[in-house]
Amino acid sequence: MKNYDNVVVFDHPLIRHKIAILRDEKTSTKEFRELVEEITTLMTYECFKDVPTVEKEVTTPLETCTQQVVKDNSVAIVPILRAGLGMVNGIHALFPSARVGHIGMYRDEETLQPQSYYCKLPYDIDEEDKMVLLVDPMLATGGSACDAIDLLKKRGCKHIKFMAIIGAPEGVSRVAEAHPDVKIYVSTLDRCLNEHGYILPGLGDAGDRLFGTK
Questions:
Q1: Which terminus of the chain is more solvent-facing, meaning fewer CB atoms within 10 Å of its CB: N or C?
Q2: Residue 141 has what DSSP assignment?
């Protein structure tokens, strides 16, 4: 995969350690869910280095000083259902007041094309300085991510970031080229997609492993 200015692939030993456990087929649903949240929190820290801030006067036990604080209501979270729900708490750990929208999509198993069935977004999603973080644990073909970003742009979103835990080169390239103005964050880049559109080595179906379904 060629290098893209709008793609960030994490290379951190703590994330690599957690990804290794996440991949293991023996990892329980409870532990899988906790790991997804932990990895998401670590990624969010880096993803929002440019979050809007304002100055605030703070009185310490010794004196008054001016500090930078995150601007109120500057972040919105939009998970792609259903697996994206597993990442929301990891972001809320750092931005507890962030409003949450939902985009429902599923992949047609014959065509591998995304099908949209639901969209509910915060009423102020289109504010000028609002940062919208679209999340899905797996970036495979890139179809769902591209369609979700298109939908957000149609709703007036101006600052969109996309975060996935595992990315395939095919999906990352597709989203990066279709939306060069959207910053893409993946914790690890896997080898390729198989003939069924699943990431290799991957970790299986993230939604099933998060919610204990088949």
A1: C
A2: S
